[in-house]
Amino acid sequence: MNQQKQETKEKESHSSSIVEKIQQLGQSTIPNAPDSNIHVLSIIGQVEGHVQLPPQNKTTKYEHLIPQIVAIEQNPKIEGLVVILNTVGGDVEAGLALSEMIASLSKPSVSVVLGGGHSIGVPIAVSTDYSFIAPSATMTIHPIRLTGLVIGVPQTFEYIDKMQERVIQFVTAHSDIKEEKFKELMFEKGNLTRDIGTNVVGKDAVEYGLINEEGGISGAMAKLNELIEAQKDSQELIQ
């Protein structure tokens, strides 16, 4: 009888832990195989940075993702990373910080854009070693926009211009798209109804060199396993 009560308490404790993870980090360990060598990092909704967004907004907090990326690098059991994106964008500096961290990983990484990888989601999508986009997914490329109080002085516009240049340089350095083409898409007029920029569909994103390949989860997992094996082979040759 006591053993049954103990087992019940353990199950309740485990369930409570899972619920807490979902509430705090937006993820759980349920879908992962017990001995999985691949970590899944999901970036959903709006990337929340230095300013806390209203509770009704679906957000991914970058301070939750940073420790996960560090853990991926440190954990010897994790051999690869899959980044799942369905984001409208968000905080530019937070998005760039995540992009730089993913790009600097020593382990193979693959991204999949499902639904949308808009705005600052573009640098995150191209930060991995290889990228996929679903045929129905889209990516919105537009100039940097600021919300809230903006001081109308030359220094403000210079700051925006420099930040925009950081985004352009990162995207062109981590994908096959040419800088001229990326700027053309970014400053296109008339493509978006009430804004400057371009909404790029899956096939076009691949054609422009922004994303490597059209596909979904199965393609991404196959490619990641291929990259993991290639890294193992190269390490064996070095040894």
Features:
20% strand; 239 residues; two-stranded antiparallel sheet; 6-stranded parallel beta sheet; alpha/beta
The low-pLDDT segments are 28-32
SSE ordering: HEEHEHEHEEHHEHEH
Question: What does the radius of gyration come to?
Answer: 20 Å
Quaternary form = single chain
- State the share of residues found in helices, binned by percent: 40-55%
Summed over residues and divided by their number, the pLDDT gives a mean of 84
How many strand segments?
8
Overall, the morphology is globular
Briefly, what is this?
It contains eight helices and eight strands; from the N terminus they run H-E-E-H-E-H-E-H-E-E-H-H-E-H-E-H. The chain is α/β, with parallel strands linked by helices and 239 residues long.
Structure description:
The protein has helices spanning 2-25, 62-74, 92-103, 121-126, 154-173, 179-186, 202-207, 217-238; strands spanning 38-48, 59-61, 80-90, 109-117, 130-133, 138-141, 198-201, 213-214. It has eight helices and eight strands. It is globular and about 60 Å long. The longest helix has 24 residues, at 2-25. It has 239 residues and is an alpha/beta fold. The strands form two sheets. Strands 2-1-3-4-5-8 form a six-stranded parallel beta sheet, with helices on both faces. A two-stranded antiparallel sheet has the order 6-7. Helix content is 46%, strand content 20%.
